[in-house]
Sequence to fold (432 residues):
Amino acid sequence: MFENPTFHAYKLKMTKVHYTVLAICFVMNMCDGMNVMVIAYTANAIGKEWAINAADFGLVFSTGLLGMALGAMLLASKADIFGRKFMITICAVLMGSGVFITAFVESLSQLIILRLYTGIGIGSMLACTSTITAEYVPEKSKNFWVSFVMAGYPIGAVLSGLVATKIITNNSWQTMYCFAGAATLLTIPLIIFFLRESIEFLLTAQPINALQKVNTILAAMNLELLAKLPPKKIKNGNTTVTALFSRSTKGPTILLWLAFLLCFAGLYFLTSWIPKLASNAGLSITLSIYAGVFFNLGAFIGIITQGYLSAIFGLRKVICYFLASTALLMVLFSFFTGPTLTLILFCLIGFGMQGGFIGLYSVAARIYTTEIRGTGIGWAIGFGRLGAIIGPFIGGLIISSGASLHINFISFAIPVAMAGVVTLFIKSRHVT
Fold:
């Protein structure tokens, strides 16, 4: 990277600009969580109105996740060409419009198409926000800040769950989609007028007026301006997937993809089917929705805790401990009965599952350089979402077969535990 005192200075001291970038990314991840979970919160209402069984709704979940995989792999990688801010804006447009229009669908096929469309924006958002966060914050606190921004996802899921209990009960499931879509679309002016582009991207890719844009940001930070740009290392647009498999990143890339795949399978089985599983465990419809709220509330606490602990004990070890503990809780799930214990257990599972999973974003942000960071994170997430596509679909089949809760949770505890072990073997000089 550019050996310039100003560049290093902006990475050493947090300013209003840094906190604004973090706040906007946090809000966008809240929207991401809300738009992912809205289908799970409304599944029971839609299923009853349209007489759709669990297996058919598994297809809805999986199609949405296919869109997320395509967005992560094909759209997020464009952030290395067109910029982080531009792609975050595009993602917000896709998410907001897709969810809002979903309120007016009248058939299962229309719902599937809209979830695919919406998923493309959802899938790319987390990759872009984690990328720009990693490029703004100081190196020593990078794990914490990336985790903090990613924690916006479960907060969005929690708040949307609380809103869903009121809206769906008092109005209709269509109203919930209007609310989520409008809330997302209203963030677009926030991105356009207040989100700053990544300085690392501007110095590396050097788009039109890069020097002017960099100096505008540096001036807002009260830092010395640059007289000229550094020598350009690569040609703009030369950020292909093959770059992820160079001698230094091939091994970490393969293991990272595998860890994401295994984590996504377990995570999206849980997030997609929590209300249904809670209902099967004897909880009322309202408490079933609150099960998702408790899961994501635990997730928020777990993500923040993981970000703090990883700076002390090492990122890979903390992720492994979180995921292994989650797998154990999933195996023991059926031994806990009653609404109170069930909700507490969902909270603890969310704590460990999301805490460990989000740590993988920090691993990805550290493995790859600025030139390929968006591509690297996007493709890791995209490949991982293959597990997210398979997980809910298999979960729907298991639930429809009448299998016990014990079998459901053991089936997905295995990949969660394996993901923790795989993470331990990711070797990179930038990852502890």
